[in-house]
Protein: GDP/GTP exchange factor Sec2 N-terminal domain-containing protein
Amino acid sequence: MCPPQPDQGLPPPLAAVPVPWKSTDPCQGHRESPGALVETSAGEEAQGQEGPAATQLDVLRLRSSSMEIREKGSEFLKEELHRAQKELKLKDEECERLSKVREQLEQELEELTASLFEEAHKMVREANMKQAASEKQLKEARGKIDMLQAEVTALKTLVITSTPASPNRELHPQLLSPTKAGPRKGHSRHKSTSSTLCPAVCPAAGHTLTPDREGKEVDTILFAEFQAWREAPTLDKTCPFLERVHREDVGPCLDFTMQELSTLVRAAVEDNTLTIEPVASQTLPAVKVAEIECSSTNTCALSGLTRTCRHRIRLGDSESHYYISPSSRARITAVCNFFTYIRYIQQGLVRQDAEPMFWEIMRLRKEMSLAKLGFFPQEA
Structure:
């Protein structure tokens, strides 16, 4: 009989295992020969020898694959480490560069702050100096304005109430008789020689000039030059009127022996910067004065002659003083009076007709001529 078929899901039959066994199947019609058994035994031995070799081969393959994986992982890690080190080095260099930039910016900021503070202090100091100078100039200007206002007020009173033709004797004490005027010190102004004008027809003026009591007659050329100057009064020495006065009167009157000092005196008179001061009392100490005074009280600095000097002059803002004799003082004063009068005319402070103004100028020219010749008023 045939053996029953195994059910599905059961383990395989023993016949599937390659082990030798002896069949007891009654259906088997013949028995296995001894040669077949020998072959079976040999095959089993061969199979037994091939199993350990395959296992060793598999182990070798697994070891080689694991080593390859380990080597590749090690190379990858080394590359990552090298890349990380390179990035870290770049970041360190960037940090160092930024640190240097920060230090440079901090240094520049400190220098800028220091320069700004220094500039601010400098500006404040300059502003304080300018303010002090401005206050000083303002104070001086106010003093000059007050002085000029007083002078203008006195001049207006003089011009309104007195003219060369009819002077106001109350405003001019020097015109009074000696018994009424009394003793005086300083300058003595001479009476104007232009009480009336001589009859003459001036071509430039176009009107008749009346004679004065002394029989003086106006020079038509001089009057024409004065009229032209009066239309546009100026202190420029190139105009014909002033050029003649400078050549004929001012220059000779201020021509002293000491030529260098004479030039300085003439420039100071023309610029209205000369000051005449009376000499102080001899009882005052003269220790510091000797350092700035350029002459003695017994020698005139302009003429060089031995004279008793009761006045001294100062040029501009200089601290140097020069002692002058009465004759030199009279010559300088005559020129100063002339320039003062023409400055008043230029500023519009003299409200007179052309004829009285002309004769006043002629009187001032006469004083310069007399002073040049050595005539000067004696001081009381």
